[in-house]
Write a structure and sequence with these properties.
With about 450 residues, the protein is an all-alpha fold. It has 21 helices and no strands.
């Protein structure tokens, strides 16, 4: 039962009992006889009468916040008549308290973000989820590799050096091709596009939404005011997620525009920004490649090349099968020949794809880095500081826009819509005032009746 229904039932019951306990007409006067009975009947009647008056008064007060009770316009419709001051107070409250950087950071600093990440890894299959996510990112990235162009660039070098191939020299040459401006630019564009898809993936969106819900719940605490203002701003968890998505997507789009802008008409700032991104990516790839043991892989490639395979075709096929995880075209060709030789055959053969070579290595690397993070207290401390500094800088960056955003949002409400919106969120809680008014009225009414009777008795 809603509080409004309870309050109305309480008022109606009080009014009915106030009438039915009047000493002159109450059927109880035949049961409660004599001086004592009259006192009890009067006490009950005054209690219900005061409860009715208190309930009516509080009904009028609660209703006057939103509309004209009984058509009385004097000092009623308080929300509508004071809209301007209320809007100013809300904007001021949000700017100085609710979304104040200092107040928010007090809540954020109470959280050990590094420990939250450790708990995620150690509970709810967080380690497995992380490896699946990394695999998904790697799969999206390598799936966009232009293996034909890569093979075309690498093949001439291999064919020239094949007889006196130095494994490290070959690897360095291939690395040079991959980290050249042309290929680095394409890889970065593919990586950004992949990042956008991963951000929008259902798995990622669910995990981000969970963290937003946890932070909002911790921040609101027991503050009804903060919850109300968040509701008035329409800052649901889904809305916050949408804002976060839009912000990250804008960053990705800006980076993609920088990398996709080429030609003689590119301004110097854009060209410098693209060069810096490509340089950073190249440095990262070279640094990562420095720790890679390539001896076994390069020896196998060398042996196959010495058997006079189509160098360019072999490299493309190898990359497609072992890096992208595609089906070997030679197997597909064999199946087509078998089908052509037996056209009446209805047998459906499912080709098993060869596992990509980087899967186990990626899983090992993820496990190693997770274990390192869990054990290294200094690393966790740096991570925690980095995350909190990031949040604080983000809040500082958008602090000035928040009050304006709130005001614009509230200005879109008409008087009727604003009244309906606020009433829908708080009216049911306000009905407790009516119930308390009836209860307190009953207590006060009976107390005053007792006092009056005592004074009357003393004055006799």
């Amino acid at each position: 039962m809603e509080n409004k229904t309870k309050a109305t039932a309480t008022l109606a019951t009080s009014a009915v009992l106030a009438v039915t306990t009047l000493p002159e007409i109450s059927p109880l006067k035949f049961i409660l006889t004599g001086a004592t009975g009259g006192f009890i009947l009067g006490l009950i009647n005054h209690g219900f009468l005061a409860a009715t008056i208190g309930g009516m008064a509080d009904w009028f007060g609660v209703t006057a916040l939103f509309r004209k009770p009984l058509g009385i316009g004097f000092h009623t419709e308080i929300l509508r008549r004071n809209r301007g001051r209320i809007m100013d107070a809300i904007v001021e409250f949000v700017g100085t308290d609710l979304l104040n950087t200092k107040n928010i950071m007090e809540t954020v600093r109470d959280e050990d973000t590094a420990q939250l990440l450790v708990d995620f890894f150690e509970q709810n299959k967080g380690r497995t989820k992380t490896k699946l996510l990394v695999r998904e990112i790697m799969g999206e990235l390598v799936g966009r590799l232009d293996t034909k162009n890569i093979a075309h660039g690498v093949a001439p070098i291999l064919e020239t050096e094949i007889k006196n191939l130095d494994a490290q020299k070959f690897f360095n040459a291939m690395l040079k091709v991959v980290t050249s401006d042309k290929h680095s630019r394409k890889i970065l564009i593919a990586l950004l596009d992949t990042g956008h898809k991963i951000l929008r993936s259902q798995h990622m969106q669910i995990e981000i939404l969970k963290k937003i819900t946890e932070l909002r719940t911790a921040y609101e605490g027991d503050s009804a005011g903060r919850a109300l203002v968040l509701s008035s701003m329409d800052l649901t968890d889904e809305k916050i997620l949408q804002i976060l998505n839009e912000t990250v997507e804008k960053k990705i789009s800006d980076a993609e525009k920088v990398l996709n802008t080429t030609g003689v008409l590119v301004d110097s700032d854009t060209a410098n920004a693209a060069d810096e991104m490509i340089k950073t990516f190249g440095g990262f790839v070279k640094s990562a490649a420095g720790s890679l043991n390539t001896a076994k892989f390069l020896d196998g490639v060398k042996n196959l090349f010495l058997q006079k395979f189509d160098t360019e075709g072999y490299i493309k096929t190898w990359l497609d099968v072992n890096i992208k995880g595609e089906t070997d075209p030679r197997i597909l060709e064999k199946l087509r020949r078998q089908q052509a030789a037996n056209p009446k055959s209805t047998l459906i053969v499912e080709v098993e794809r060869k596992p990509v070579i980087w899967k186990d290595a990626v899983d090992y690397l993820v496990d190693m880095k997770i274990d390192e993070f869990i054990k290294d207290e200094e690393l966790r401390r740096k991570f925690d500081k980095l995350m909190k500094d990031f949040v604080e800088n983000l809040l500082e960056e958008y602090r000035g826009q928040i009050p304006q955003m709130i005001r614009e949002r509230l200005d879109k409400f008409s008087d009727d819509e604003l009244t309906e919106f606020v009433e829908g969120h708080v009216a049911d809680d306000l009905q407790m005032i009516r119930i308390n008014g009836s209860v307190c009225g009953a207590i006060v009414g009976m107390f005053l009746f007792i006092v009056a009777q005592a004074v009357e008795h003393l004055m006799r």
